Amino acid sequence: MLRLLRLLLLLLLLPPPGSPEPPGLTSLSPGAPPQAPDLLYADGLRAYAAGAWAPAVALLREALRSQAALGRARRDCGAHCAAEPGAALPVVLLDAPGPDSGPGPAQGAWERLLLRAALRRAECLTQCGAQRLGPGGAARLRVGSAIRDAFRRREPYNYLQRAYYQLKKLDLAAAAAHTFFVANPTHLQMREDMAKYRRMSGVRPQSFRDLETPPHWAAYDTGLELLGRQEAGLALPKLEEALQESLAQMESCRAGCEGPEEQQRQEEEEEGAGSQGGLYEAIAGHWIQVLQCRQRCVGDTATRPGRSFPVPDFLPSQLRRLHEAYAQVGNLSQAVENVLSVLLFYPEDEAAKKALNQYQAQLGEPRPGLRPRENIQRFILRSLGEKRQLYYAMEHLGASFEDPDPWTPAAFIPEALREKLREDQEKRPWDQEPPQQKPLTHWKDVLLLEGVTLTQDARQLNGSDRAVLDGLLTPAECGLLLQLAKDAAEAGARSGYRGRRSPHTPHERFEGLTVLKAAQLARAGAVGRQGAKLLLEVSERVRTLTQAYFSPDRPLHLSFTHLVCRSAIEGEQAQRMDLSHPVHADNCVLDPDTGECWREPPAYTYRDFSGLLYLNDDFQGGDLFFTEPNALTVKAQVRPRCGRLVAFSSGGENPHGVWAVTRGRRCALALWHTWAPEHREQEWTEAKELLQEPEEEEEMPSRDPAPEPPSRRLQRIQDKAGKPPRVREEL
């Protein structure tokens, strides 16, 4: 009954049919206390499954609004109560005890101080939560870890885009699709949906906007863009905004560390490990959890949506750009404040010390009032205090802690831990430069070993970092892979594009097969096992050659492997003017008007090298071509043939496209490689394991790490409920 009343209330809040939709996903009931986001989300999915698109939109939007309001309330209440008299913890109790610590306050006095402050803080938070969130406060609106992860992955927008499409609100459908895609750049179904939206006449380029862009990233990117255009004066307000919003985002994240969800996480961990100890062990354990969460906020704030790793040294790098920009506009006082702030992180930074001396010399006279930024001083002092306690807990209580900051002074790390931490650091994935690897064989030796010849190099192709190699496949191997693609298509296992009209042109059909799907089909007997194994072997062969030729001192990893076929649709080729694949770059968004290529979503920004291994040439059209950044001037053209590999770097230096396939079927193995091991293709390993297992064993289900599309998630929900599944329709 309660859910029915909630649904009716939200329906009353919807605008009448035909009324203009507010821009973006604005709140339906501004100022109202948030409701339980998990219940709203569940009700929204039920409405979606029933095809009740308007109620689904209302419920999902209200779930998003309530989740955001809950976070703001916790942040504001935390800041308010931390400043309340008597609710602040005594400073003497917050530092980690040292080996020579004396007895401290009189026996029992510290307990009274600690517990009195804790009780007052709890009272303040309870009252503030009740005022902002209604009776029960934050505890009543506790959200489980699965739902929190769904909001973090922006899954509500996956459902919203479909519901908006059904309501004929294409502008908002495209915005919701783009918002989801930014956080899930490897989601093939959404990429196809995005391509369809771009072809719709009612969708404008401005429709593809991110409705959840964190303010600090929006300001940061704008500031960098202005700096790149040498407009330091215009960039400074944006850079200042980015720094302030970054610190505010960190505070919001830290407030969540004290919420009931973190307590729930600790309880779940204790249930698995078995809780031990009494009052003080429990207090210490919970406090360590809070400190660990707070430290993780540094990395969370520095991680872009859809990325796996944070931007290194995010705050110091912002301060460096600020002091350089202030110096460019002649504001040396502000330049000094910011470079002094950099030196708080890195006291021995030679570049910062040199810049400081230069600024002081230009100022001419001493300025004793110039100090580092106060907010940065507070941030560092607080962070170091927390690190000291965590390292103490590591040494004496067996706690775990991964320090997110490279600037932590070595003196803060207990000597007994330094060697272990140094070994762990060497094992971590590198951010920019990898550890020195054993040099690989020279590319000429690799080509000779594989029986491959270099047909055209970058100079002959009128560009840079591109090459054509022949002889990677024998005619028999090409035939085996072509048969694999044909058998998979007939089995109805076309991944991503499902053999329908190409997302790039209405005049061709597009079929795709991943390595994992090929392995699963081979296990099921739908395709030949030999062809599936060859697909894996050939992809590794291409990776080895690409690394040897372009990156001998830096390991490359397969990021994605896709066997694709483009087929001309008979009767639709007369007077055709479009391309099989428009001109683009593989890791950035190409802007032909300016010649710029923006390395940002929806591009696959982690791709570093691309490869196209062709399987046949018995078709018309379909040649690959490279252009100038204007996407118009063709610089080189390559005709496909069996065993020919075209390899090139994935950036804006290699814009490329495919001429229309006007007759026949063109098949190729498309491969992308990355320097970042965290973006290694997990499906490749799964496919290899699957093909190595005995054939008579039961087929393993796919373990796709990407978020489930609405169809799969809803079918699973409905199956559990014993109701007929509702299949998600295609756009």
TrEMBL record:
One of its GO terms (molecular function) is L-ascorbic acid binding. Its cofactor is Fe cation; L-ascorbate. Keywords: Dioxygenase, Endoplasmic reticulum, Glycoprotein, Iron, Metal-binding, Oxidoreductase, Repeat, Signal, TPR repeat, Vitamin C. Transmembrane segments: none annotated. This is procollagen-proline 3-dioxygenase. Gene3D superfamilies: q2cbj1_9rhob like domain (2.60.120.620), Tetratricopeptide repeat domain (1.25.40.10). Residues 716-731 have a biased composition (Basic and acidic residues). Belongs to the leprecan family. The keyword GTP-binding does not apply. It comes from the Eukaryota. Its EC number is 1.14.11.7. InterPro entries: Leprecan_dom, Oxoglu/Fe-dep_dioxygenase_dom, P3H, Pro_4_hyd_alph, Pro_4_hyd_alph_FE2OG_OXY, TPR-like_helical_dom_sf. Residues 1-20 form the signal peptide. It is an enzyme of class 1 (oxidoreductase). Residues 253-276, 683-731 are annotated as: Disordered. GO terms for biological process: collagen biosynthetic process; negative regulation of cell population proliferation. It catalyses: L-prolyl-[collagen] + 2-oxoglutarate + O2 = trans-3-hydroxy-L-prolyl-[collagen] + succinate + CO2. GO terms for cellular component: catalytic complex; endoplasmic reticulum. Residues 561-675 form the Fe2OG dioxygenase domain.
